[in-house]
Specification:
The protein is of the alpha+beta class and 435 residues long. The chain contains 14 helices and 12 strands.
Length: 435
């Protein structure tokens, strides 16, 4: 019987759920094994329309003009900058970012216009620590939006750019989306068939997440909205990050309410000068959990070394990401003890301690002397790759990262999972947390 560490064996699922022509999820549910621009279009008319209104209103998150498409938006619709829906947005909807996506995905096409879905609970609920859309302002916005849609003839503009959208779609599928393991999200309560991607050429920065509730939890549709790009090859973690919001936000909210230490980390990380869009401890808490689960996905599905990703998060201001990652990784095995993992064998913990430290992190480790006992590495599953500990096959060591302690077991050379000969594979177990 194999001992299960934090991270199960890697697997790949190529069954993808896609957003269809015009961006309406009802149109497509298909397998994609190669670029299929003629079959599927990830650019969503609803999002481009709502984004345009906020662009004309001067909303900073949606006002970039860098590409030919964005310049076409500016030049084509400049005369509509004083349209009632733009004026309403400018004066009464002083928000942006994911709120724009939230509105777009709650729209349904109805003839020459749009209507709000019957269930808008996730639109008017508290998704990000504060309320923005209400039933009243959402209803007024859609009514004015429909006038704008007809008067501006946005439908014709969108139709003229279909070929451009299809080229982006084909590149997106080929370069990154075919690598997404949708099935991984099932364990976290999401339906893999209800994960949707939107590419937005009108938005040249930031990604956003939103979801639409169905009659049952498994019917919830989750959207990841990503900016258009010439090259999508670096977008995998970007996509996973946005999908992860749909389940990790709830964890962040619970931990922030119930875990005083976690709440202190989140509150201490609020930095309005550096990260103005993460303005409260609750928002930061959600981001911590999302970023930790994104790294976990990349470890489990891409075999990446989490350490560089963790350090990158620290450099962005998430200084407690190591601790939060440990919480995420350990959620299924908290309280494990050495004898439970290793079995009934004698061992001695070496007094000699090795250390790596930086301004924000301290890692120490000590080897276990197993008194001649040889571990059967076939009993342990792959968790992560590393090159810091100078271990050999079958070595066991205690590793302390911040306030968390782990057992690491060397199960082989990193070459077997696509790394260099200097890297080692480890099976990793959480042991305890210190004050």
């Amino acid at each position: 019987m194999r001992i299960r560490a934090f991270i199960p064996l890697l697997f790949i699922l190529f069954l993808l759920a896609a957003c269809g022509g015009g961006g309406y999820e009802e149109n497509y549910d298909l397998e994609i094994s190669e670029p299929a621009a003629s079959q599927v279009n990830f650019v969503d008319e609803r999002y481009e329309l709502v984004s345009l209104v906020f662009r004309l209103a001067g909303t900073p998150s949606h006002s970039t003009t860098q590409t030919s498409y964005q310049r076409a938006l500016r030049d084509t619709f400049a005369d509509f900058s004083d349209h009632p829906v733009v004026e309403f947005t400018r004066h009464y909807l002083t928000f942006g970012y994911d709120a724009i996506l939230q509105m777009a995905v709650h729209l349904e096409k109805t003839g020459d216009g749009f209507a709000l879905r019957s269930n808008i609970d996730s639109l008017v609920g508290d998704m990000s620590g504060f309320y923005r859309w209400t039933r009243a302002n959402a209803s007024t916005f859609v009514e004015l939006l429909n006038d704008f849609y007809v008067e501006s003839d946005f439908a014709s503009f969108f139709e003229r750019h279909i070929e451009y959208f299809e080229l982006h779609t084909a590149r997106f599928i080929e370069q990154v989306y075919s690598d997404v393991n949708h099935e991984w999200f099932r364990q976290h309560g999401l339906n893999p068939y209800n994960l949707r991607a939107i590419i937005s050429p009108s938005c040249s920065r930031n990604g956003y997440a939103s979801w639409v509730f169905g009659d049952n939890p498994e019917d919830t549709i989750v959207y990841a909205c990503l900016p258009g790009a010439l090259n999508y090859r670096g977008y995998l973690a970007f996509i996973i990050h946005e999908y992860t919001h749909a389940f990790a936000n709830h964890i962040g909210e619970a931990w922030y309410a119930e875990n005083e230490i976690f709440r202190s980390w989140a509150d201490a990380s609020v930095d309005l000068a550096r990260m103005p869009f993460y303005s409260t401890g609750q928002v930061i808490a959600n981001e911590y959990v999302v970023r930790a689960y994104t790294i976990l996905y990349m470890v489990e599905n891409q075999g990446v070394d989490p350490i560089p990703m963790l350090f990158n998060e620290i450099s962005q201001g998430f200084t407690h990401i190591f601790e939060v990652y440990a919480m995420v990784e350990n959620s299924q095995l908290a309280g494990s003890e050495l004898n439970l993992i290793l079995g009934d064998i004698d061992f001695i913990i070496s007094e000699e301690e090795y250390q790596f430290s930086s301004d924000t992190l301290s890692i120490t480790w000590r080897f276990l002397d197993l008194q001649g006992y040889v571990l059967d590495i076939n009993d342990f599953e792959f968790s992560q790759v590393g090159n810091a500990f100078n271990t050999s096959l079958g070595d066991a060591l205690l590793v302390r990262i911040g306030s968390q302690e782990f057992l690491y077991i060397d199960i082989g050379c990193g070459v077997d999972v696509g790394w260099s000969a200097q890297h080692r594979q480890y099976s990793v177990f959480f042991l305890s947390e210190f004050e």
